[in-house]
């Protein structure tokens, strides 16, 4: 079994910063892509940022220049540094990972349960 556990969410004023972490644990051979998504009440889940094992990144247009995704492959952990936060960034932030449990099995996509980020105006 593989678990993804997010941490670092909380309440912050507009313009502030937060750093989210997501650690993967369990039966893990290696992890391919990792990413952060968010879901606000009444809205669809949307991609925030993704990062490949080699460090290539992709961001939603709404967060470019303000958010930075990074990862530590040795720790099976992905981070999201969020600066200049806006009230519209209020959402549950979830991490996602494509996990190989062995060298001969295809990767399987796992999700964390999410961490709440609330940005007050």
Overview in brief:
The chain is mainly β and 121 residues long. The chain has strands at residues 2-7, 10-13, 18-26, 30-39, 46-51, 57-59, 67-72, 77-82, 91-100, 108-111, 115-120.
Helix content: under 10%
Distance between the termini: 40 Å
Order of helix and strand elements from N to C terminus: EEEEEEEEEEE
How many DSSP E strands?
11
Radius of gyration: 14 Å
Question: What sort of overall outline do the alpha carbons produce when their principal axes are compared?
Answer: elongated
The structure class reads mainly beta
Mean pLDDT: 97
Which stretches are poorly predicted, pLDDT < 50 over at least 5 residues? none
Biggest sheet overview: 7 strands, mixed
Q: Per DSSP, what share of the residues sits in E-state strands of 2 or more residues?
A: over 45%
**Helical run tally:** 0
Question: How would you describe this protein?
Answer:
It is a single chain. By secondary structure, the chain is mostly beta strands. 0% of the residues lie in helices and 58% in strands. It has strands at 2-7, 10-13, 18-26, 30-39, 46-51, 57-59, 67-72, 77-82, 91-100, 108-111, 115-120. Strands 2, 4, 5, 6, 9, 10 and 11 form a 7-stranded mixed β-sheet that branches. Strands 1-3-8-7 form a 4-stranded antiparallel β-sheet, with no helix packed on it.
